[in-house]
Each structure stands twice: as structure tokens, then as C-alpha cells.
Amino acid sequence: MSITKRREYTDTVLKWIFRITGLLVIAVLAGIFLMLIYNSVAFFGHFSPLDFISGLQWNPSYEQYGILPLVVSTTLVTFGAMLIAIPLGVGTATFLSEYCPPRLKAILKPAIEMLAAVPSVAIGFLGIVLLGPGIADVSSQSNGLNAINGAVLLAIMALPTIITVSEDAISAVPHTYREASLGIGADRWETVRKVVLPAAAPGIIAAIMLGVGRAIGETMTVLMATGNAAAFPGGFFDSVRTITATIAIEMGEVPYNTAHYYALYAIAAVLFFMTLAVNMLGEYFVNRFRKFHAL
Q1: ∠220-224-80 over CA atoms, to 5°?
Q2: pLDDT tens sequence across 11-58
Q3: According to DSSP H, which parts of 172-229 are helical?
Q4: Within 13 Å and on the Cβ side, how many CA atoms surround 16?
């Protein structure tokens, strides 16, 4: 077999391998989605979707399946985490890209990326033994297992993703942009604020959306640190239970093919659509900024 034919054969084989792998991934995702929808439909055949979405009580022992407290708790903890993580993450990424000396950056960036490798159970443990007592002292509560505890821990977990992706986006801005800004009399801070960050906005938004997805989907940390009270939260200092924590706590012990079993699939479907909405919103803003810069 000639070298040319061997290369053509190799290219054909690799092309089919990549094609099959891509189709397999799509098939797996479609299977998960169909499983969620199938079991959710089985649940809604016996319970009203309106009562499920707007109900204020989640108590399967009394066949009360209202997920509004779970949705609000998940949103509250995620929102609090992003309030902390976005300024710190984008600010740190800007420092690493624009102000940090190369030798210090060579140390800081790998250290930040290694933070993502810390197990979530370890971060949850630190929230219980370190952060929780401090929050309890400040808020004069019996314990610090509440929404603000979970928000701080989720912010820590989301920071490596936000910092790394944002720093890559900022570093990818052409140096000619900076030179042009400095050439017309702008100082370094004005160049970063008015030129570099807007030019890197699509990548920064993508980083933030990845951080939001990380926070929404986290399970073990919020299960350990938020108190797991399935009640409607009144603020950040109330104990909460997120959707992921509810699934993790109850799925292992729920009887098969019961209303409670199908209800857990239904809230998993809600979580799926929440994550999908976040991704679509991020994609919308990314495309909008790209079109703006194309003009």
C-alpha cells in the first residue's frame, strides 16, 4: 500500500471515529433528556404542573410536591455566589493579564487552576468547620449553615473557571488595541476599562455563564453547608435546600415507580431547563457583543 493510500485510509478511519463519537455524545444527551421528560410526564399525569411549580411545601410524606422554595433557594445561592465571584474573578483575570509580572503570573495562574481540583466535599467541610461558625457569630444564629455560607463556597468553586477563561479572553485581545488607545493619550487604566475589557466581553460573558452553570449544578457543597431546610427562604441568613441537594438526599432511598420517585425526575427536568436557559442567555449576549465588534 502506497503512502498516499495509507494516509487516505487513515483519514477515512479517523473521520468515521470522530463522527461516531460525536453522534454517540448526542445520543447520550438525547437519552438523558428523553428519560427526564418521560418520567416527568408520568408525574404530571397525577399532579398539576401549576401546583408543582407554585407550591410552597415540599413534603413527600404528605404528597406535597411544591418546588417553589427549592427553585428560589437554588437561585438565591447561585445569585449570591455570582455577586462574589464575578467581581473577584474578572478583577483577578484583569490583574493577571494586564498588571501581573510574568514570574508572579507563572505561579499564580497554575495555583488558581489547581483550586478547581479541590473536591467539593472538602470545600463543604471547610464551610461547616470554618465559615459556618464565623457566620453564626456575626448573625447571632445557632449555626452558620445557611444560604450565605453556600454562596461563599460556590463562589470559591466558580472562581477558577471564571478567572481562567476570562484571563484567556483578555490576553487574546490584540496588542494593537492597547497601542492605539495609549497612542491617543489614554492611560493604562482607561485602556483596560474602555478598550480591553469591552473587546474581551464575549469571552468574559462565556466565563461567567460557565461559573453560573458550575454553581447551579453543584451538589455536595450546598448539601453540607446550607442547612437543607425545604422552606421558602426569607434571606441569605436562612437555611435553604437547593434542587441538587434534594435529588441527592432523596433519590437513594425513594421507592421505585412512586409519585415521589417521578417527582425527583420532574425537579431534575426543571434544573435542566434552568441550566439551558442560562446557557441560551449567555449565548445571546456573546453573539450580541460579537456582532457589535464586527460593526
Answers
A1: 85
A2: 888 889 999 998 999 999 899 889 999 999 989 988 888 989 988 889
A3: 175-183, 188-191, 197-199, 201-217, 220-225
A4: 5
